[in-house]
Design a protein that fits this description.
alpha/beta; 7-stranded parallel beta sheet; two-stranded parallel ribbon; 13 strands; about 15% strand
């Protein structure tokens, strides 16, 4: 049986697991406490047994306190595991601020978080079958600007010229699955239309019939440190390599299709098995 071991069953990884299980895969995931049908990250015996049986291995765990916990604890075991495919969910934050310019996988790694940059490089060097997926802002059902608008947490920030890329959670799963038959390497998974975050807020308010929040400076909006860091960088993420080499294309090429799927996920098919080619 085809079996994937996923380190870190977070939002994107859990969505991928659901897609794979619908195809008949066995998926074993780790969590901090081993809740549900997962295994505890610290249960070394169970993790090593899973590594020996896995045909595919994926980590979605970000660095913590300056180090990658998966590499620190299981890196050597992963390096020699019999799996034929390994992957790591990284971040387009490794590119740093590009002043609004396009960045592809050849762009220098100069992100403000040294631990992110180091983890990205370390996973690349771990195995010859490694796929690195660099992801921008992730959204989807239950985790989108629509939810923040409903909860009164959406902001419009007065930063002209600020541009962001994003990716729907289902397109992450589609990209990972497309890579099963594609070459190893580094891939950006992003939508086709980078734009200012304010456009999402405005579109979402129109969809929900909600009042637009006021245009504010970061100080006036009382942004958290994480949100301020978000607005400190400005780039457009190119996705052409994944399209060329993996045959992948986003099912939700812009935020408009993606947010429509968040409103009616059942009709949009986000819980189903989506095609890998367009």
């Amino acid at each position: 049986m085809t079996q994937m071991l996923i380190f870190g069953m977070g939002y994107a990884a859990s969505h991928l697991a659901g897609r794979l299980r619908a195809r008949g895969w066995e998926v074993i995931g780790t969590t901090r406490d081993g809740r549900g049908d997962s295994i505890a990250f610290a249960d070394e015996m169970a993790v090593l047994v899973a590594l020996r049986g896995a045909t595919h291995i994926l980590s979605s765990v970000p660095p913590v306190e300056g180090a990658d916990p998966v590499l620190a604890r299981y890196g050597q075991a992963i390096a020699v595991a019999p799996a034929g495919w390994t992957g790591y969910l990284s971040s387009t934050g490794v590119y740093g601020d590009a002043g609004g310019a396009w960045v592809d996988e050849s762009a220098p790694v100069k992100g403000r978080r040294a631990d992110r940059n180091a983890a990205d490089a370390a996973w690349q060097a771990l195995r010859g079958d490694m796929r690195i997926f660099r992801l921008p802002g992730i959204y989807g059902p239950g985790r989108s600007i629509l939810d923040r608008i409903r909860e009164g947490r959406a902001h419009r920030i007065d930063r002209p010229g600020q541009v962001f890329s994003r990716v729907h959670v289902d397109d992450i799963a589609g990209g990972v699955m497309a890579s099963f038959r594609g070459p190893a390497g580094v891939y950006n998974l992003a939508d086709d239309e980078p734009c200012h975050q304010n456009r999402l807020v405005e579109w979402g308010c129109a969809m929900l019939g909600a009042r637009l929040p006021p245009l504010q400076s970061p100080d006036e909006a009382g942004l958290s440190p994480a949100a301020r860091a978000f607005y400190a960088e400005n780039r457009r993420v190119a996705n052409g390599k994944a399209k060329r080499l993996l045959g992948w294309a986003p099912r939700y090429p812009t935020f408009r299709e993606g947010l429509a799927a968040c409103v009616a996920p059942a009709q949009a098919g986000s819980a189903g098995d989506l095609p890998l080619h367009r």
